[in-house]
């Protein structure tokens, strides 16, 4: 099984920095493979709790090198819930890379563990007779402090269902549970990695970005 690694998070940062510089990112320092994956960006200011800034991925297996490259940018720039991340935000960012594993069909909507399983729900909207689906990564329910029912109900809203949620409707949901390995890296750790392994901090327009400022400005 492939596990999420530091080098995968570095590659996502490399890809985002390269977007701002107009250059190609350095080649990845991990082997390719085929797995479902997600890239999550969060932003923390002045030691505050990191807040979601973008999260997009795929539940279908795909090549992880091109996958991380694509979703690093898609989650940073094209998550419709947020404005695109700007280069000045880099020093406040942390990146979490997730590789999804162990897909299983749950017996019912309660057949999963908070903090261990991510969820994919699928159900028919009784008001419009259309299929709806949504997913939460394994860390979401625990981070929010949700119970099983609160997680399922939140997923139904995420899927676009606005009607009344009943126990009978919950029992009709098809739940797929999965697990993940993940690695989180803050921008400061990324800078330290680059200095150790490449001898220089990331630079935009030729100027190193340190502590939120381009030196020389």
From TrEMBL:
Coiled coil: none annotated. Residues 1-194 form the AMMECR1 domain. InterPro entries: AMMECR1, AMMECR1_dom_sf, AMMECR1_domain, AMMECR1_N. Transmembrane segments: none annotated. NCBIfam families: TIGR00296 family protein (TIGR00296). This is AMMECR1 domain-containing protein. It comes from Eleusine coracana subsp. coracana.
